[in-house]
Amino acid sequence: MKRLVILGGGESGVGTALLGKAKGYEVFVSDKGKIAEKYKDVLINNEIDWEEEKHTEALILNADVVMKSPGIPEKVEMVQKLFQKGIPVISEIEFASAFTNANIIGITGSNGKTTTATWTDYVLKNGGLNVSLAGNIGDSFAKEVLKDEAEHYVLELSSFQLDGIESFRPHIAVLTNITPDHLDRYDYKYENYIASKFSITKNQTEEDYFIYDADNPTIAEWIEKFEIKAKKLPLTFQQKVKEGAYADEQNIIVKIEDNEFIMAREDLALKGEHNTKNAMAASTVAQLLKIRKQTIRESMGSFQGVEHRLEKVLKINNVQYINDSKATNINATYYALESVSAETIWIVGGVDKGNKYEELLPLVNEKVKAIICLGVDNARIKEVFSNCVENLVETQSMKEAVQLAYHLGNPGDTVLLSPACASFDLFQNYEDRGRQFKDNVRNL
Fold first, then answer.
1. Is a pLDDT exceeding 90 seen at residue 101?
2. Any idea where the Mur ligase C-terminal domain is (predicted)?
């Protein structure tokens, strides 16, 4: 019996443990921190061995294979010891993909991947396909593979999940864009992060498809540097393409072989240039999977968007409150500020991953009237923006931030939570941050 050791007892770790046990592995889960009660219950009920708040070397270094949860960096001591012993360290995506023959649509990118994955899942379900949405969103891929009910998987994939793949091969790969993010995990080398994103296509063959944003400067520069065997389908605003998707002032046009899908941009459910790209990506996948054009059109027009991504919460005294907690980097916040037209009170801050806040200066000067810092260390934010606005205040709780925003707001203004940072200093994760924002807005 092969021994599968899992580092990290969260969603991907416990999903992998269940799948591993079902496939005949001897399974052991080890977490350096505490394992949440709901996951502990699953491990106990399924008689899977586990430990928390420590890594016992004797129980880990005897593994045949190790699944490392995406949150654990490769540089930690235990992972380095595994590498030295030559024990394979893979991701949950790699492990789970070996146990399914379903069609896989893998979606990655610095921004837009959640919206694109959710929108793609929506249009394919509306088209009558048997689809499961998993990966970096919702349930783990491993748990979904264990159910063995789907014929198609739409997987949202982070760079950390792609780092641990060896043979994982999506039939359709989507790369929404690449901008600097998570550089603390890539030795502050942008090219390492870029390579991680492009690895989504490394095992694809001529029978597969690679959909990518051809207007993204990083992708445009690097697309020739990686060997891409899959059929390339660009998404672009800049020129007509024979195959792929492009947009003019009025329409988006998707062309696959001799088949053309056209839809008016004004009929798309989500506004903003970045969402037009997300719609083009989802429509291209739908076209490849032969969804009826009428169904694609209806799905592109009726999609509700994603929680914590430019989510309109409430209007109070004619002030619009928007939850964009999922904006954990500069580029995502750039989109958010670009999409609001009103005078804006901006709630920003958290764990900074080496942000270049200067890129936001033109938009902040144009649209932002007050800044509320919500983080333990706000020095960089103050340094860059203190001359832009009259009001720049620091807070340590969401309740305080929302109440301050309420007092600063005038009719017609927007209050925008778009932190441009990770959330781990004051919150469990970006969802917790977003829900706290919404709860406090509703309590005003």
1. yes
2. 308-421
